[in-house]
Protein: Alcohol dehydrogenase 1
Amino acid sequence: TTAGNVIKCKAAVAWAPKQPLSIEDIEVAPPKAHEVRVKMVATGICRSDDHVLSGSISSVKFPVILGHEGAGIVESVGPGVRNIKPGDKVITLFQPQCGECRNCLDPKSNMCLKSDIGKHTGMMLDNSSRFTCKGRLIQHFVHTSTFTEYTVLDEMAVAKIQDDAPLDKVCLISCGFSTGYGSALNTAKVKQGSTCAVFGLGGVGLSVVIGCKVAGAAKIIGVDTNSDKFAKAKEVGATECINPKHYKEPIHKVLERLTEGGLDYSFECIGNTSVMASALLSTNYSCGTSVIVGVAPSAAELNLNPMEILTGRTLKGAIFGGWKGRDCVPKLVADFMAKKFELDGLISHRLPLQKINEGFDLLHKGESLRTVLYF
Ligand code: PAD
Ligand code: ZN
Ligand code: ZN
Structure:
């Protein structure tokens, strides 16, 4: 039995930014009080992992084990863990839910105050790490770290899901799918018959499209500079797609014309501040709502004329689509099992952990939506 012992296993370690990941033998310490050790089964590669590797999210410390879109099976639990036991299927929560803080108690917020997003301590809640490699301490990433055969999670960062869920698909509910879907349903609250535009048609943007469709939007316009993304976007619900490179005039002018006075809702799913500004401008100047979903570089600033908001527009944002992880993720998995939405269309590639750098290359080349790594 491994319970109570250090586990030696493989992990993809990021030693420094702007370098390929390296597959290493690491040691994973047993879970302490209110912690859970998980054997990973599947994890997606998200653009946010790449933002860290590229150095664009500069506060993350190295060496680190990245990855935050994971699903696995509980290997052992530490003292005090009540509702999770070895053998349970779980999804990792990069946006945790402690259930006790001011924001967890507010039904309007999912931004648990214990979240490591933005702070990037790289540690477990008790301020220590469970990972070592070659005698060095390795940082955790936003309470998850899924690019490893075994990881340790604080109980607040674990959602227990039903036993019959296919982990190689529902891992997307751990980040990309839920972020996009929730941005449409929870953050924008898209109304039936409305007009929507989704800027950036990667795994997150496509999930916004799915959410807009479920909400009954009449028009869902996909916007991407890579026209190769259009076929899949239409397959999951986009009613038309446009490429800003094919127009001389600014894209918000084009969208204003297509929608007779501006969109009801727009979503920025790229992480580019000038696109955020044009997504806002493309909404109706009085009743439009624009949602920031993409993660911009740490140092970036958004340039806006206040008049664009003064006339009545709403600018919003959300992490993880506004979902409270432990409450909502099991329900999202149940909705998937009940065929309320599909995830297959979002998964473009499957690779073993050992080929993780190939997965990042596919993302850089614009060829992948989601690459799911298996173990
Ligand atoms: P992705 O890289 O797969 O998709 C981005 C898409 O945007 C690609 O299809 C690009 O071709 C397209 N694109 C790039 N530049 C432009 C441009 N100027 N105009 C139009 N299209 C363009 O990324 P993803 O879908 O994995 O993630 C998208 C963003 O969402 C990224 O910034 C990621 O960090 C962020 C994210 N946020 C959360 C959250 O909780 N808010 C969660 C997960 C991901
Ligand atoms: Zn992500
Ligand atoms: Zn909390």
Observations:
- The two ends are 20 Å apart (CA to CA).
- Residues 176-188 form the longest helix (13 residues).
